[in-house]
Structures are given as structure tokens and as C-alpha cells.
Design brief:
By secondary structure, the chain is of the alpha/beta class. It has 14 helices and 17 strands. The longest helix is centred in the middle third of the chain and has 14 residues, at about 210-225.
């Protein structure tokens, strides 16, 4: 099903593969089951609702190889991150999937992917294959160093992969407080239309916003001459020390509630994505996904999607120089800091007091949040600190940062209803 929108999705068509309520049980009936972990469930949902358009499912081997080697799909369309479903040989055998099945096979095996012991989606297996994971890591991340979290993720995958289209048969329930902010690409495009936005700049984030982030958004909004800014908060795999998801989303929303942005120019949303920390490659991926959401522009600052010292500071700026027009414009920003001479937030491209700058680094903000002190309004808005501390108390026993207890006890972002159980408001899926 295609969506007609001025801001065309990647490849020209917004892919939606969600079975109707009437067809879902029939499609899923009698199929062998494969339970999937959190990260695969999120990928399935993104595929089904078109976040990853033009993909219709998990990549087959030739598609993976093209992305890994050339950063394109088989049809030449730019794509930078493999979207893959890894599986053990034992799980394949239990589901009746034979290694070596190829896209040319005349008959395909369909399996029911389950999550939280409930039906999730049907995968039509087009191919079962293996791939050199070290080669994948080297090409996607530029390193095979296991200290890189994306490399570790890749090297620890199972040794087989299943490729083929997926159809969502049991839409998930999005739990509070995320239910207010999660929208499918179609829903976001409809929201932009309601707001009268024809030009939208996306802000990718996995952090609580400090004043530097605020001014980066305002600068991007002005320089792009966009109608509004979409905060696209990444909700995915968490590790100890990360901000808790609730604080990230609600703190960004508070910026608008507190009047730092007018209601008509600022929206907060969530993207269920597990960061790969792939630097420039992930920057390209982020641009493609936000294009699918209906954004016309995407901002990229220093160390976008980077980790450690694996990438140049502005590698995410340079990667677009050698790519064809993606249909979404990059808004490239330098660093924002606090300048005691200018007595406020300053921009690297304007401020002449570099030797006196005070970084608005994550460690500084974390000290404020952990230390119980009131921040200067030039570093972290008191309104933001208030909501972060509220989230810490409500969701994580007083800490705004991920702990083992948070990972064990948190309310999941999504819950799976029983397939076709009811249509009451308590269990109504997206």
C-alpha cells in the first residue's frame, strides 16, 4: 500500500505489511514457530510499518553483500546498514527451514515469529544463508575491534541468517509513557499535514537535551527554513550508564511544554532502533529512515552515531559528499558550547573564544543530574532537570541512568496482546 506524500519515501513507496484483523489468524495458523529476541522484534515492527522502506523484509544474502560492500541495495538504491535476522541451525531445523534455501526456490517455507510468547509476524523464508560476520563488521564499522559495540553485536550473532518478506499479524501495544509519542511513518506524515508542515528537520537523539542540543535544533530549524522540527528519540537496546528511555522522551517533550519551542514548530517522537554506533554509515541510515517519516532535512553534528575514537569528528558530514542525492537534505552543524566571555551558549562557527570554551559534554550534565545541584540555565534548563529527576524516581529508584535493576524491572516499551483477543482500549494495538 503506497502513501502519496510530497516528501517521497526512500524508493518512492512507503511499504506497509500489516495483515488485517480478519486475515491475521488465518495467515498465522499452523505455522512452525520461531521465538525472537527484543532486537529482532523491533526490526520486524519497523519493516512492517515502513520505517525501513523500501525493504519488505529481512535481507537475503545478495542484498546483504551489496550493502556491506557497496552501501547499496541490489537495485542501486543507497542503503548503509544490513537488516538481518540471525538464527541458530538448531532453531532452523526445529522450524523446518533447510540451509541453502535460495530466493529462486519454487516453494518457500513460512514461519510464525513469536515475541513474549505471542504471535508477532509471518516470515516467508526466501533464503537461508551464512555470511562472514568479521567481513561484515570490517566494512560496516571500519574495524573488527571488539571494544566497538557494533562489532561485538555483529560477531556475537548466530551463524545463519534468514531472509524474506515479513507480514505483521499481531500489532504491538505501546506502553506508557511512549504511547503518546510512537507513530508509524504514515501517522507522522498525517501529523505533519495537520500541522501544515511541508519542510521538516529531524533531530536524532539518545540523550536528555542540554542547552547546546536546544540551540542546535533552533539553529537547524532556522538554517533549513523548515516549518517544524521532529525530535526522533531512539528507543532500543540499553546498557548501564545510558539515560533511561523515559527521561529522554519526556525531557524533550518538556522543552515544548515549557515554552522553549512553540507548539506548532516542535514534535517529539520515538524510533525503536538499536544503535549500531556505525558513525558515517549510520548517519546515512538515519537520513533514510527520517526521509521515510516524511522529513525533508536531517541535522548532523559532531561525532554523529560514533563511539570512542573510531571515526573522525565530522565523518558524518563528509560521507554524504560521495553519495547521490538521497532526497533529504543534510543540515551540518559544528559544536555548541558555553562561552563565559559571550556569557551564553556559543557556536563553534561564530565564537572567537575557543580557548575559554566550556564543553556541554555529557559528563558535565551527568554530574549535575547525579549531584543534586541546580544547573545554570546556560547548561541545563531547570525544567529539564525537574522532569529527569521525576523520571528517575518514578521509573528507576532515583537514578536517571540505566542500572541492572532498571533492565530487569522496567515496563517494556511494547507488549504483545493475544492474537485477536479483543478490541478493548486496554489491549488495543497500534
Amino acid at each position: 500500500m503506497a502513501v502519496d506524500n510530497t516528501l517521497s519515501p526512500h524508493g518512492g513507496e512507503l511499504i506497509e505489511r500489516v495483515a488485517s484483523a480478519n486475515d491475521a489468524a488465518h495467515i498465522a495458523a499452523g505455522l512452525p514457530r520461531i521465538p525472537v529476541r527484543d532486537s529482532i522484534a523491533r526490526e520486524v515492527i519497523n519493516l512492517a510499518y515502513g520505517f525501513f522502506s523500501p525493504l519488505e523484509g529481512f535481507m537475503v544474502r545478495s542484498e546483504v553483500d551489496s550493502v556491506v560492500r557497496n552501501m547499496t541495495l541490489n537495485n542501486g538504491l543507497v542503503w548503509s546498514i544490513p537488516i538481518i535476522f540471525d538464527i541458530s541451525r538448531r532453531a532452523m531445523a526445529e522450524a523446518g527451514v533447510t540451509p541453502g534455501a535460495t530466493p529462486e526456490a519454487t516453494s518457500r517455507v513460512s514461519v510464525l515469529l513469536t515475541y513474549q510468547d505471542q504471535a508477532l509476524a509471518v516470515l516467508e523464508v526466501a533464503e537461508a544463508f551464512s555470511y562472514d560476520r568479521e567481513f561484515m563488521a570490517q566494512n560496516v564499522y571500519g574495524t573488527t575491534d571488539r571494544d566497538h559495540p557494533g562489532v561485538t553485536r555483529t560477531l556475537e550473532m548466530e551463524d545463519m541468517f534468514l531472509g524474506g518478506p515479513v507480514t505483521l499479524v499481531n500489532p504491538p501495544v505501546i506502553n506508557p509513557p511512549f504511547d503518546r509519542f510512537w507513530k508509524t511513518p504514515r501517522q507522522l506524515r498525517e501529523r505533519f499535514s495537520e500541522l501544515g508542515w511541508s519542510k521538516v528537520v529531524a533531530h536524532q537523539t539518545r540523550n536528555v537535551p542540554h542547552v547546546g542540543h536546544e540551540w542546535m535544533m533552533k539553529g537547524a530549524l532556522l538554517s533549513s527554513e523548515a516549518d517544524g522540527i521532529l525530535v526522533s528519540a531512539v528507543i532500543g537496546e540499553k546498557k548501564p550508564g545510558d539515560y533511561i528511555d523515559e527521561a529522554i522522551v519526556l525531557a524533550h517533550h518538556r522543552l515544548r511544554e515549557a515554552g522553549f519551542f512553540l507548539p506548532g514548530i516542535h514534535e517529539t517522537s520515538t524510533l525503536m532502533w538499536d544503535m549500531r554506533y556505525a558513525g558515517p554509515r549510520e548517519a546515512v541510515f538515519h537520513a533514510i529512515v527520517r526521509k521515510n517519516l516524511g522529513c525533508s532535512h536531517h541535522m548532523f553534528g559532531r561525532d554523529h552515531a560514533g563511539v570512542g575514537n573510531y571515526y573522525e569528528t565530522y565523518a558524518a558530514h563528509k560521507v554524504f559528499e560521495n553519495l547521490p542525492d538521497l532526497g533529504i537534505k543534510s543540515v551540518l552543524t559544528l559544536e555548541w558550547w558555553y562561552c563565559p566571555v559571550c556569557q551564553g551558549v556559543a557556536y563553534e562557527g561564530l565564537c572567537g573564544h575557543r580557548d575559554q570554551k566550556q564543553d556541554l559534554a555529557g559528563t558535565v550534565i551527568r554530574r549535575i543530574i547525579d549531584g543534586g545541584q541546580e544547573p545554570a540555565p546556560t547548561t541545563l534548563r531547570s525544567e529539564i532537570l525537574e522532569v529527569v529527576r521525576e523520571c528517575a524516581d518514578k521509573y528507576n529508584a532515583g537514578s536517571a541512568f540505566v542500572t541492572p535493576e532498571y533492565l530487569e524491572n522496567r515496563t517494556p516499551v511494547i507488549s504483545m496482546p493475544t492474537l485477536g483477543c479483543c478490541t478493548c482500549s486496554e489491549h488495543q494495538p497500534v
